[in-house]
């Protein structure tokens, strides 16, 4: 196990010499190849530190954040890294290319990334096909499916895309995340406003009731929010999700702030900033959200977890469980087990 995990630290300099998106694609392809050859069995069983979240039993409280596997092409390979649950997407109803490349940039001195991917994905039909072909859920894994809107759908018709996404993924999801916080789709974050959020989530809750009757099970709904919200914005979200019976909140997505990186190469690139600079901002949102919502709301903490200590800080701030993304790029897959053991 240790040799395979150490291999990432040896490979990282070569990967970091490549364009960030190319390195991302290469790493996932090699992980899938290793999985198909049975090499990932050497990782051993995932750390056990069971949690129950939204009625779902997780093997441990460390999940994969959405964005790393947008199309659900690498579910089983990524599961071998030891995650207690996984989230894939964001998927939009129709396939779209996203923004022009280059659109992902490393800032190594800050242990950060800037991306302006723009919900690039193969569309709902291909996404569902990949999910159905994976074995992860059949083996007891908990899989969240993250939905968004197409870039060319007018913001006033966003609910149409989200309902289409919910209808498509519902039979195949353990929970569904409504992504309204990416900064890379024009006007998307306006859906976090109290009135807009209430209208959108109210529509989705109605669709969920219909789908629950149709499929004989109630799938939890989660909303993913930005780290750039002021306290009154966080309070409004907490009040809205409580009123509508939304099951959980993911806090947080990427930030538009550049205070900690503007002096670095690529620090002025457009897009969302993830990694270490987001950690404190997400902690503040988590803390405010927990204070406002009380103990009943499920909170998934994400943003800038680069160590086991960072994962513990998310839990201390009020999160129930955590998710990783950018930390995997800088620390490698050993971070999953380090965090799971620290939170056990």
Written overview of the protein:
This protein is an alpha/beta fold and 344 residues long. The chain has one domain (2-343): Aldolase class I (TIM Barrel, Alpha-Beta Barrel). The protein is 40% helix and 16% strand. The protein has eleven helices and 13 strands. It has helices at residues 2-16, 20-36, 75-79, 124-133, 158-169, 194-215, 231-244, 279-293, 308-317, 326-331, 334-343; strands spanning 51-53, 56-58, 62-64, 85-91, 104-107, 112-115, 143-147, 175-179, 221-225, 248-251, 272-275, 298-302, 321-324. Helix 3 (75-79) links the parallel strand 3 (62-64) and strand 4. Helix 5 (158-169) packs parallel to helix 6, helix 7 packs across helix 8 (279-293) and helix 9 (308-317) crosses helix 11 (334-343). The model has no long low-confidence stretch (mean pLDDT 96).
In what order do the strands lie side by side in the largest sheet?
3-4-7-8-9-10-12-13
CATH topology: TIM Barrel
Named at the architecture level, the CATH assignment is Alpha-Beta Barrel
- Briefly, what CATH class? Alpha Beta
Q: What Rg do the Cα atoms give? A: 18 Å
Number of domains: 1
Question: Roughly what percent helix?
Answer: 25-40%
H and E string:
HHEEEHEEEHEHEHEHEEHEHEHH
Mean pLDDT reading: 96
Shape: globular
Report the count of strand segments: 13
Question: What portion of residues belong to β-strands?
Answer: 15-25%
Q: Describe the biggest sheet? A: 8 strands, parallel, barrel
Helical stretch tally: 11
